């Protein structure tokens, strides 16, 4: 009997060590990728080892950790779904015994814990540490900046706890809720993270429909569109004439000193626009036939199919919510990993759900940076400040943390939320969940209808040559990529 107990303890010990090693390796890969991404966009500074350089380096490490946690939150639900299907397909396989429910539950709990840590501790610390200078009258240095940062964090924590305490006391006025107000670990943090998750879900609700329609524009800019009733040689010839005319005007303005200034800057800006347009037209002319006539329609059909399937799944989920209350995303930890499949069509549906999740995440990020409110957070290669990077990391963490909740709320997947992700109070509110599904379906449909009606109208005008009748104040029209009538007459 003692030997059996020793064997069980050894198995548990080896299982825990294996899980720690797997978690460490996964996080190490995410951390390296996140570090490469941030260093690509971070503004390059000099090599002097001064105080600001040390502060920037510490903030960089904290931002890298936060971005790695965001990546873990994005890959968490797809990894859980595919692990469940693999365990169902190969239940007795020796080489996948490490892929068990204990590992999946541990990953969910770790990601939830690190998300709270990054949102409420690390990112505020990085921002305050970056902006701190030390209290007045104290000796300048790293210690003074750390002291000021901790004081600011303490005051911020008191402010947030006070707001949460007042809000919860106003909402829940019963005796049990009043007693839970004094429980920091079991009440404050889950309640606070539930509010953050709700804000992230609302942010996804704004960004994702915009991103789904914006994806068509981005892919249209990256790919070469088919040439329909267009003479590229004539357009390139007209562009060359405009470029030569502007070059002569620039040479004439440079010989007269009194014409220098804003007029020359305007001419240089017009010259850059014309050269960019010429490069685009030359790229369209040099593109192969399969790239123009095959790749572009296939990519557009894939985007349209992904968006249509997402809207249809949300529509079916609305029907399920109206007829069956088990469709509510309440979150459950009783269902084990590898026992039953949560996909009706097995592996094929699981793969489709994973593809839709990544598509929605990419669309939400694109939509986030497309909104005018968040345009200032758009990162630029080698020219992004640490403050902007902190804002981007916080925003992406909020979006990625809300992605599993949004996927389950919209019915993209039936996978039950594990760990602390399933403890959110608002997931059990029928009216909030139903309104969320209705708003997503309606807003996404309206964005797509508006996008395609305007795109079809522009393409018909281009094909019929009626777009030249639209006069413009500038010599070129960067949206359509063609010469306007006004600019053509000025140059010629």
Provide an overview of this structure.
There is one protein chain. This protein is an all-alpha fold and 492 residues long. The termini are far apart. Residues 470-492 have low confidence and may be disordered. The longest helix is centred in the first third of the chain and has 40 residues, at 2-41. Helix content is 73%, strand content 1%. It is globular, with a radius of gyration of 28 Å. A hairpin with a 4-residue loop joins strand 1 and strand 2 (482-483). It is built from 13 helices and 2 strands; from the N terminus they run H-H-H-H-H-H-H-H-H-H-H-H-E-E-H. It has a two-stranded antiparallel ribbon.
In short:
The protein is mainly α and 492 residues long. Helices cover 73% and strands 1% of the residues. The protein has helices spanning 2-41, 51-89, 101-131, 142-171, 175-180, 184-222, 232-254, 262-286, 289-323, 347-370, 386-409, 430-464, 485-491, and strands at 476-477, 482-483.
Low-confidence stretches: 470-492
Q: Count of DSSP helices?
A: 13
Give the CA-CA distance, first to last residue.
99 Å
Whole-angstrom Rg: 28 Å
Q: What's the oligomerization state? A: single chain
Beta-strand percent range:
under 5%
Give the overall shape, derived from the CA principal axes.
globular
Helix content: over 70%
- Strand order across the biggest sheet? 1-2
Mean pLDDT over the residues: 76
| Category from helices, strands and their pairing | mainly alpha
What sequence of helices (H) and strands (E) makes up the elements? HHHHHHHHHHHHEEH
């Amino acid at each position: 009997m003692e030997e059996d107990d020793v064997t069980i303890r050894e198995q548990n010990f080896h299982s825990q060590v294996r899980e720690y090693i797997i978690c460490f390796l996964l996080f190490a890969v995410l951390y390296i990728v996140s570090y490469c991404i941030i260093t690509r966009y971070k503004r390059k500074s000099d090599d002097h080892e001064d105080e600001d350089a040390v502060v920037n380096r510490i903030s960089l490490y904290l931002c890298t950790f936060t971005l790695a946690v965001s990546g873990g939150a994005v890959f968490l639900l797809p990894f859980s779904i595919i692990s469940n299907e693999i365990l169902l397909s190969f239940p007795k396989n020796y080489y996948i015994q490490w892929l068990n429910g204990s590992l999946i539950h541990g990953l969910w709990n770790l990601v939830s814990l690190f998300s709270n840590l990054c949102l409420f501790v690390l990112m505020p610390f990085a921002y305050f540490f970056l902006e701190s200078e030390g209290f007045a009258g104290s000796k300048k240095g790293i210690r003074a900046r750390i002291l000021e940062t901790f004081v600011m964090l303490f005051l911020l924590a008191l402010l947030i706890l006070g707001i949460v305490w007042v809000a919860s006391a106003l909402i829940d006025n019963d005796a049990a809720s009043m007693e839970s107000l004094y429980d920091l670990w079991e009440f404050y943090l889950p309640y606070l993270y539930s509010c953050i998750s709700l804000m992230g879900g609302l942010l996804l609700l704004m960004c994702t429909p915009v991103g789904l329609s914006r994806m068509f524009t981005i892919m249209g800019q990256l790919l070469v569109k088919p040439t329909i009733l267009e003479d590229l040689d004539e357009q390139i010839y007209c562009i060359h004439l405009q470029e030569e005319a502007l070059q002569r005007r620039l040479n004439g303005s440079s010989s007269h000193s009194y014409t220098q200034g804003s007029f020359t800057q305007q001419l240089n800006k017009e010259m850059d626009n014309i050269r960019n347009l010429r490069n685009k037209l030359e790229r369209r002319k040099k593109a192969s036939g399969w790239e123009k006539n095959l790749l572009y329609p296939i990519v557009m059909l894939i985007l349209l199919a992904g968006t249509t399937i997402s809207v249809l799944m949300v529509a079916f989920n609305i029907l399920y919510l109206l007829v069956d209350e088990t469709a509510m995303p309440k979150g459950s930890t009783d269902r084990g990993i590898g026992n039953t499949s949560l996909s009706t069509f097995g592996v094929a549906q699981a793969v489709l759900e994973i593809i839709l999740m990544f598509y929605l995440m990419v669309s939400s990020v694109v939509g986030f940076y497309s909104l005018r409110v968040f345009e200032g957070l758009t990162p630029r290669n080698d020219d992004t400040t640490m403050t902007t990077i902190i804002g981007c990391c916080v925003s992406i963490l909020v979006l990625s943390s809300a992605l599993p909740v949004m996927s389950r709320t919209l019915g993209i997947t039936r996978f039950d939320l594990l760990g602390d992700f399933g403890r959110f109070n608002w997931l059990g509110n029928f009216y909030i969940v139903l309104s969320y599904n209705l708003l997503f379906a309606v807003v996404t449909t309206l964005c797509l209808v508006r996008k395609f009606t305007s795109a079809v109208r522009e393409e018909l005008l281009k094909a019929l040559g009626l777009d030249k009748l639209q006069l413009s104040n500038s010599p070129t029209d960067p949206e359509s990529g063609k010469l306007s009538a006004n600019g053509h007459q000025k140059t010629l």
